[in-house]
Amino acid sequence: MDYKELANLIFPEAKEISYYEEKYPERNLKEGAVVTRFAPSPTGFVHIGGLYQSLIAKKLTTQTEGVFFLRVEDTDQKREVENGVTGIVNALKDFVIVPDEGMISENEEKGDYGPYKQSLRKEIYQAYAKYLIEQGKAYPCFCTTEEIEEIRAKQEQAKIRPGYYGIWAKCRSYTVEEIAEKIKKGEKYIIRFKSPGREDRKIKHHDVIKGNVDFPENDQDVVIIKADGLPTYHFAHAIDDHLMRTTHVIRGDEWLSSIPLHLQLFHELGFKAPKYAHIAPIMKNDEGNKRKLSKRKDAEAAVSYYEEEGIPEEAVKEYLLNIANSNFENWRKANPEKAIEEFELQLNKMSVSGALFDMVKLLDVGKTVISRMTAEQVYEAAMVWAQKHDKELIKMLENKDYALKVLGIERGNKKPRKDISKWSEVKENIAYMYDEKFYEESQEYPYQVIHNKEEIQKILKMYIEKYFHEVDDKQQWFEQIKELASAMGYAKEVKEFKANPDQYKAHVGDVSTVLRVALTARTNTPDMYEIMQILGKDRIEKRFAKAIEEMEI
Ligand code: GLU
Questions:
Q1: Is 375 exposed, middle or buried (0-12, 13-18, 19+ CB in 10 A)?
Q2: From the alpha carbon of 237, which atom of ligand 1 is closest?
Q3: pLDDT for 202-238, tens place per residue?
Q4: Which atom of ligand 1 is the closest one to the Cα of 241?
Q5: What is the dihedral sign for C-alpha 384, 385, 388, 390?
Q6: Whose CA is nearest to atom 4 of ligand 1?
Q7: Which of 72, 300, 355, 494 is the most buried (most CB within 10 A)?
């Protein structure tokens, strides 16, 4: 019996690999086009790090007119959850990172290089495993779990490297006849790769992100086909990324140490190895300690968190690009109006160690992103978010004309308002413009410099009775406030007050604050002139009356 016959005994049905090599030809793309993928397991959880990788992958393929595809790695069926693929597809959709090929729903896909779900590629992996067996580069291993544990215990005791390699690789030395006999007897087995490596030799590898790295060669006879007939990650990676004609494997740097094995697999299979770019994980500062964003400990590790909070997808993407390339910040300063699609991302400028995730900064980006939107866009996005998460906000937004006025305050001008960082802040942000909300509970009125009750009542009464007139612009409006201030012994200008503080009670800004607080129960609001325009005289009067009433209690 020879290897070929043995291979036939193990995988009688498997096709010749030439069938697949022809079925999935080299892609006909322009020079330099990047073909890459996002290859998650459908575990029901999409980590922000996965989104980060996808964003980078998508961007590079767009920049080079390449192909970005979504491959689902579901060979570990214990970890799988129902609708896991849908979760991934939707996460990418939410962030408008659209794959050109691959899974598009739980069971549907598009593209010519599929199936894009590994559990459907069983026969392909087996064909390549057969091919390796035929050449004596892979073999069945009959070791039981107990035997493997025994080997490990002995290695531990002798303080030597653990694993299935060299003299420890017991099943490596069976003859073809011995193997055939065991199989015929019905002994259970898995398939292992017969590593040609030696631990005392080094390999050199150039990683697109990590640069030059040296490793000892791989000498482990890793499992390539498991007892359930499905491949391990390592084997599936080699076969899939070869047949899908991936040019760049962009993945988390927890895989960097597997490089010696992966390069060896590509080599022994006769494949050209892709380029590798190992991305450092996103880190978090946890009371002075830098650690990976954790699925268990950090809500913001889940992609779903951003949708729930209503952080605009654009802001998340912009922030992630900030983390990805440090030159992004300067680019943004120089091009405040440009879409992030115009930024040229460079893989080799990515940081070698993990960047810190800074929620404050992300929310700040959120503010800028939202400040650039029109009232209509803010309205639409807030409504989409509200439909899912906030019934009360839907009700508030029901009167669209009014909502557009409120959301339009200080928007669309040169220095737009920058006070909303996420959609979950909209309600709180506009609540005072809604009488139902404003009168709902008794308000705290945070008066500042002028806090004397009589004085405040006087200012409010005077303003509404004597100084409130219909005006055409903000300047005229402010003139009235100045006159009111002056009539009551306050400086018309801050400058005047500063020059002669003894001559005045305070200044026009302090008078304005009284009006603002009485109107909104806040010290900080966008433009008061616009607020007053929207509220109109009756509502202003009513609010002042309430403010006075609250002071009398
Ligand atoms: N399924 C692997 C993971 O989720 C994919 C790694 C890769 O991109 O090759 O880590």
A1: middle
A2: 9
A3: 999 999 999 999 999 999 999 999 999 999 999 999 9
A4: 9
A5: negative
A6: 40
A7: 72
